[in-house]
Amino acid sequence: MPIVVNLDVMLAKRKMQSKELAERLGITTVNLSILKTGKAKGVRFDTLESICRELDCQPGDILEYRED
Q1: Where is the HTH cro/C1-type domain (predicted)?
Q2: Which H or E run includes 3?
Q3: Which H/E stretch holds residue 64?
Q4: What is the DSSP string of 4-53?
Q5: 51: closest CA among 39, 9, 2?
Q6: Mean pLDDT of 6-12
Q7: What is the pLDDT of residue 20?
Q8: Does residue 1 have a pLDDT over 90?
Q9: Domain range holding 61?
Q10: 15-48 pLDDT, tens digit each
Q11: What total of structural domains would you count in the chain?
């Protein structure tokens, strides 16, 4: 898939665990895991906004386009 989710990278940079981020966002760890592994079919802008706010980053830090 040409869209790569770099959420693990940002979590590591911020020294935060997935569980903590999920709690801050008010979503389940399972849903966050689906997003982290790139298995999500989409992401809502308000969720992306919340992730960026909590991790102090830009959407481009989390989502990346790579040609096959």
Answers
A1: 13-62
A2: strand 3-5
A3: strand 63-65
A4: EE-HHHHHHHTT--HHHHHHHHT--HHHHHHHHTT--S---HHHHHHHHH
A5: 9
A6: 96
A7: 97
A8: no
A9: 3-65
A10: 999 999 999 999 999 999 999 998 999 999 999 9
A11: 1
